[in-house]
Specification:
With 376 residues, the protein is α/β, with parallel strands linked by helices. 28% of the residues lie in helices and 31% in strands. Bound molecules: flavin-adenine dinucleotide (FAD).
Amino acid sequence: MKLRVVVLGAGFGGLELSSILSEERGDELELILIDKNDTFFFGYSKLDVMFGRKTADSVLLSYRDFVKPGVTFRQETVTSIDPEARRVITDGGIYEADVLVIALGADYDFSATPGLIEGENEFYSFAGAERLGELLSTFTNGHVLIGMTSAPIKCPPAPSEAALLLHDYLTERGVRADCQISLVMPFSIPIPPSLGASKALLKVFKERGITLMSNQGVTALDPERRVAILRDQSEITYDLFLGVPKHRAPDVVIASGMTYDGYIHVSPDDLTSEYPGVYAIGDVTYVGAPKAGMFAEGAAKTAAAHIIAQAEGYESSEIYRGDGICYVEFGGDQVARVEVDFLSDPSSGTFVEPTLGTAREKEHFGASRSARWFGA
Ligand SMILES: Cc1cc2nc3c(=O)[nH]c(=O)nc-3n(C[C@H](O)[C@H](O)[C@H](O)COP(=O)(O)OP(=O)(O)OC[C@H]3O[C@@H](n4cnc5c(N)ncnc54)[C@H](O)[C@@H]3O)c2cc1C
C-alpha cells in the first residue's frame, strides 16, 4: 500500500524532505506538498533584492518545476490542522495523512511592534525587501537604522550582513560620507554561537563606521517623528528604518494547539511531535538549532530517514545533530563561514575568515539546491 504523506510548507525543509522521500520511495509514495505561494526563494535573496544585486524576478523559482515521482504540489493555503486525526484543511480541500509533516516556517508578528508595517519598513518579507530597495535607491543622506525587535530570528547574522552590504551600497553610490548606519540587536555580540565571527564583525563595523547597539531591541516606532523607541525607553531618530519583526509560528500552527512558547517542540532525535505520525521540521520548531536553511534541511534528512524506516518496518538510528553552516556576507564581495554543532555544543562555532572563495562556495550552495529541487 502506498504511504500517504502530507507535507505542509514547500520551503527549505519541505522541499528537501519531499525530494528524499521521492528518491527513496517514489513508486510507493503518495505525497502531497502544499504551499500558499507559487514560487520559492532563498532567504538571502531578500538582501540581494534590497541592495539591487539581483532583480526580484531573477530569484524566484517556480513550484511548477518541482517535479518528483510520487509528489504532487498544491498551491493552497492551510487553514486548519488537526494533529490528532492527522487531518488538514486548506482553501482547496481536506487531506488525511498516514504521516503529516509540518514545515510552515516562522511567520512575523507585526502587531508586537507598533509602527512596524509589513512590506513598508522591514526587510524580512519579500515585499518589504523590494520596498526598502526602492527607498534606498534614492536615499542620499541621513541616518539608516537597522533594528531588531527581538530574538529568535531567521538567520541571526542577517542584520549584521545588512549593515555591511548597506555600507558598500552607499559607498558605491558616493553618498556614504553623508549617511550614518546604526544596528540595534538584542544579542550581546553579533553572532552569539561564534566568538570568532563576532570579533571579526565588530572589527569591520568599527573600520566602516557602523554603530552597534547590543543588548537592545526596538519596541515601537513613531513614524511621524521618525523615532525608534528602545527597550530601555531611550529614543533614536532615523531617516530610514530597516526592521526585523518579531517572529513566531504561523497562526494556523498556533491554532492547532501544537505550540509552546510560540513554536512546536519536537524530539531532537527524530523530529517527531507529541502526536503519533506527526513530524515538524525547520523554523516552525524549537529544537535548539538556529532558524536557517541548512538546519531546516538537516532536520528534513533526519525526519525522512525515520519516515522511511517506519514505512519499511525497521528502526532508524539517524539522530538530528543540529549542525550546519551559516555563510556571512562581509561586504567587498567576501563571505565568511561559521560552522556550528548546536546540540552538542552551541558555543562551539568555528569561524572561517571572509574570502572570495567562500563567496563562490555560497553561490554553489544555492545553485546546487536550485538544481536538485527545480532542475534550474
Ligand atoms: C533576510 C534573510 C536572510 C537569510 N539568509 C539565510 C542564509 O544566508 N542562509 C540560510 O541558511 N538561511 C537564511 N535565511 C533563513 C532561511 O530562509 C530560513 O531559515 C529557511 O527558509 C527555513 O526553512 P523552513 O522550511 O523551515 O521554512 P520556510 O523556508 O520559511 O518555508 C515555509 C513555507 O511555508 C509556507 N506557508 C506558511 N504558512 C502557510 C500556510 N498557512 N499555508 C500554506 N503554506 C504556508 C510559506 O509560503 C513557505 O514557503 C534568511 C532569512 C531571511 C529573512
